[in-house]
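Known limitations

Files may contain more than one protein. Parsers should not assume a single record per file. Below, a two-record file is shown to illustrate correct handling: read the sequence, read the token line, then continue until end of file.
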Amino acid sequence: MTKILALLITFTIVSCSKAQKTKFSKEVLTENLLASDGSQVAFQDILKKHKGKTLVIELWASWCGDCVKAMPKIKELQANNPDIGYVFISMDKTVENWKTGIVKYELKGDHFMANDQMEGVFGKGIDLNWIPSYIVIDKTGKIVIYRAIETDFKKINTTLEELKK
């Protein structure tokens, strides 16, 4: 019984340590990402471009099977929410694979690539441990969903509907 109680306490502590964040750290905001035109852009500048608009950020990679399986869901989300901004941040290892994936999967939105993949400054700064992963930001710039995965599209859809009100 004490083992079960200890396990529950540990689970609660770990769950609480990954609580919903409502803003990004300065380290994440100032981290540069590779833009599709070859320039380096600070994450805060990407967010500023979408200021005043609801934004969905998808963290993905062309090699990720779960990412590919989720593509129809993100396309459906885009079709049902055309007034929302969409930013795709790739965790690919090469620029060629990233750009090929954008074309192959017909991803519509703004495209960036983390310079050091999932284990780098950006990935660690946003607690990235799984892709695809989704972040939803409201019109005021507040993070309303921080750690959604491909099985959370119902939650994402519901949140986007609530943000329209």
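...continuing to the second record:
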Amino acid sequence: MTLPPETPEVVPLREPAGGVPEVVDTPAGLAKVVAALAGGTGPVAADCERASGYRYGQSTFLVQLRREGAGTALLDPVPLPDLSAVGAALGDVEWVLHAASQDLPGLHEHGLFPAKVFDTELAARLLGLERVGLAAVVADTLGLGLAKEHSAVDWSTRPLPVDWLRYAALDVEVLVDVRDVLADRLADAGKDAWAAQEFEAVRLAPPPAPRVDPWRRVSGTHLLRDRRKLAVVRALWEARDASARARDIAPGRVLPDRAIVAAAQALPRTAGQLVTIGEFAGKGQRRRAAYWQRAVDQAMALPETALPSLRGPSSDGPPQPRLWADRDPQAAHRLGAAREVVAALSEQHHVPVENVLQPDALRRLCWAPPASVTADSVSEFLRGRGARAWQLDLTAGPLAAALTSSPS
């Protein structure tokens, strides 16, 4: 009988080596941090904390940095919005982040533009780790247990509790050590060049374009098949967004999505009718009932020509794949064959499907392939949609063959 391998014991990481540092919130304190970081050696570990779910937007409320020889610094970007001196002091030093795409926009807001990035989450994905959260990757690479109990707290709180600061400091305590282990594994797997291309793509990624009709993301809107009701959703979303922005509160705390959809379904004619809806019966919503009812009234008064479409805004992309079989059976066949190719490459190289090739690029290729399908034309098509060189090397030839295959 073969026994399963033992799970390595994880040693809890409870305290930063240098203790919990004080938060730096003055120009004089920042100058000391800048000098210390400039005198350090090796990469700099970085992390950011936001107040998602509490505040409007994705502002950064704490920046954590750690470098060998400099120790850990916790910077408060509220009184210190310009942190560009940190970037100037570090020059072309590599920044180590976990899930860099989440933190880089916040760093950019404060004048920090890393010249080079190592993303430990992306590295873990390329290596085929089953779990890629920071705690899981720290446990896998170093055998250390990293608590994550404060990951969703309100980081705009001032002063920040010591326990939260300890958590924040520990997030960068061993990040460079994790980076070193993952870098060795990437080299051993022959994936270090892949990783370098991925890291650079994340570093240089432009900010996302503003979403068209963001109100359509209200949960439950897809169940409403009436243009007037959609107009109520839009009006309440806009009223909620304006109030949330003015009060600097997360929109979902101002008015939940379920309340918006409930009002759209009920179509109340007065504030009195509105507060009979369960989602508006609370004290806070009753107090603002007139405000919400005005939004409903505005939507109810719109002429038919001003009502939103049931189908949403037009898109330059293909339709939902579930519709392909009816609209274009050949495209549906191409998509099925192409997905099999990507799935096989994913299994062969132990890389998640979505990292082998961006799903949107694959769908666009299958819906409207080049006039002449060859490995070169497929490669050119995918390159124009952000595919990296390593992805093209893996996928272009097999995808070209799949796109030209005949249905069985």
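Parsers that stop after the first record will miss the second one. For reference, the second record is described as follows. Residues 68 and 292 are 54 Å apart (CA to CA).
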